[in-house]
Amino acid sequence: MRTQVEPPPQNRRPDSQDPIVYDEISEPDSQVPGGWGVKMEEDPKFEEIVEAWRSQNHRISKVK
């Protein structure tokens, strides 16, 4: 089966983009954060991530 999809015009598209999986440009020079090419934090605060995930609220008590 084949299909042909015509995307909507630029002004009718959602204001979103796919996340970066791997950015070949180094972090200071890149326009987008994240990706597998970026070195991980030395001491990531997983407790804060878990708290935000469980509360389903992006504002957590430890970060003001």
Overview of this protein structure:
Residues 1-37 are annotated as: Disordered. With 64 residues, this protein is mostly helical. Helices cover 16% and strands 0% of the residues. It contains one helix and no strands. The protein has one helix spanning 46-55. The longest helix has 10 residues, at 46-55. 0% of the residues are buried.
Helix-strand layout with pairing:
Layout: H1 46-55
Summary tags:
64 residues; 16% helix; extended; mainly alpha; 0% strand
Short description:
With 64 residues, the chain is an all-alpha fold. The protein is built from 1 helix and no strands.
Distance between the termini: 53 Å
The number of distinct helices, counting runs of at least 4 residues, comes to: 1
Radius of gyration: 18 Å
User: Major beta sheet, specifics?
Assistant: none
Helix coverage percent: 10-25%
Unreliable spans: none
Mean pLDDT comes to: 77
Class inferred from helices and paired strands: mainly alpha
Shape: extended
Strand content: under 5%
How many strands appear in the DSSP assignment?
0
The topology string of helices and strands comes to H
